[in-house]
């Protein structure tokens, strides 16, 4: 599943690096296990049912960690939830949803739908988007998609707030909050910190793309209207962890996202506001030419990044 996501690097593909994943990044570790337990069946008798139980428990723990991030709670431990890996974990959950989103919420015994289901004259008027109870069965397929989009929107908002707190959008080489001066630090720890810096510099581009894709899908105002000016390779030039093909891929994806955002922001509101179909027809032809130019300038990528690009742009 790793090649199908641009969020993570291949650093944790090596078992020798799992020490930092477990001891330093609990949110990312739990999220990876939660996603894996949904799509991989355990061997042996009862493997499917055990995988369901493990996935459900890990999703509950992920919710607990998300709540700690949102409420600003942190334990006195080296395993921090307010970490670069937590932002990556939140973005991963926007791509790979937990199984619980396919089902209605559990009732706690005091839910209002258990008390009153019939309309009453004292009730406030229902929103126009509210679906009558008699027709709710028609939305059984659509509702999980709406739940996943709403959850992704809130997760990206949380990731963006945490990114601002950790200084992700600051284009400098200053010391980070997750970096410490440790006397006699081993060389492998320096490799981890180098990798952490590279991951930190990748996040502004990822947050911009994820936020704008969701905003277009939900019809909301984008959380990041402009691409943050952060050079991903600055400060880590010459480091073997830098993936040049990933930077080419993200630059092309950002151009496509910016173009799609411009079309959404200017074309559709213009039709409703002015009703001038001829003017919008001309602008549509301009956008066609812009899309053709983008297609012509798209970089040549390896098989792995080409698969990733097709997965996210189709």
UniProtKB/TrEMBL annotation:
GO biological process: aromatic amino acid family catabolic process; positive regulation of transcription by RNA polymerase II
InterPro entries the record matches: AAA_Catabolism_Regulators (IPR052780)
Name assigned to this protein: Unnamed protein product
Native species: Aspergillus oryzae
Gene Ontology CC terms, in alphabetical order: nucleus
Chain ranges passing through the membrane: none
PANTHER family noted in UniProt: TRANSCRIPTIONAL ACTIVATOR ARO80-RELATED, ZN(II)2CYS6 TRANSCRIPTION FACTOR (EUROFUNG)
GO-annotated molecular function: DNA-binding transcription factor activity, RNA polymerase II-specific
